[in-house]
Design brief:
Elements: H1 3-15, H2 18-25, H3 29-43, E1 48-49, E2 56-57, H4 59-84, E3 87-93, H5 97-111, E4 116-122, H6 131-136, E5 142-146, E6 156-164, E7 166-171, H7 184-187, E8 192-195, H8 202-214, E9 219-222, H9 225-234, E10 238-242, E11 253-257, E12 264-271, H10 280-295
Parallel strand pairs: 3-4, 3-5, 8-9, 8-10
Antiparallel strand pairs: 1-2, 5-12, 6-12, 7-10, 7-11
Protein name: LysR family transcriptional regulator
Keywords: DNA-binding, Transcription, Transcription regulation
InterPro entries: LysR_HTH_N, WH-like_DNA-bd_sf, WH_DNA-bd_sf
Length: 298
Amino acid sequence: MNTNQIKCFITVAENNSFSKSATKLFLSQSTISKNISRLEKELGFKLIDRSHKHIKLTNKGSYFYQIIKPIAQKLDDTISDLRENSLSLTLGFTDTPTESKFLPKAIDQIGQLNHVSVNVEVIDPNTPTGLINLLREKYLNILCFEEDAFYNAKDIKFLPLKKMGFSVMLKRKDSLHNKKVLNFKDVKNRQIILWSSKKVLPSIKKLSFRLANENNINYTKKYDFMTIASKVKSDAKIGIIPDILADKNDPDFIYIPLNSDVTYYFGIAYNRELDNRPYFQRVLNIIKNSANAFLNDK
């Protein structure tokens, strides 16, 4: 069994075609077929059912693909790192006020490391593919956001940095602006807009329940922060948003903590495979230390 055989099998399994696989690998169809046949002979079982017009994996072939795919990817990554003695990362930046306070400094420090390069991709937290898939598909390697955006994703590792909650977003001249903390009863008779991602996070579900079912408070949901800001500014409404979206230096709004038991952790999410990559722990520590320096001052 060799890496060429494995690569041929994985490519055919993912493309369901010998011809497409041949084009991708710059090999002839016969070479690919021979590699897979030799692999099957060594394994002692068939991987591909060739009795049909279209390529179809056998049951054992499907299981073998699920096992060998991540192993092959890790092998490729390791060889690449050892050859180049470097680490290349793509860091996702959702442009929240919290991130903006510490991430640029961290990126600058990472850029000064030898053998490490970092590319920054500005992303929308409401991206249709979802933050989890951006990490799984390796479009991104690492990003900072709420932990509950990655719940049940066992292949994604999350390093918590700080427990956070929600804030009430008000115009600076709002009648509630002098309060240090707001309770549900303080906002009961107000028109409320609750921030929510398109894929509703567990913390938002829990807060929605607290508002509607336990306190009989009416609200509407919006996933666009700019829409919420516009409504609060012009229509005398108030917003309820995660603390990571609250900019304490905003000249137009004031953000007052909401007294609620609904919390979440803000932190760093990344694919577990990175734990074993050269230099990654140094990168992780830079982001963690930079974030903690800011978060501990809040």
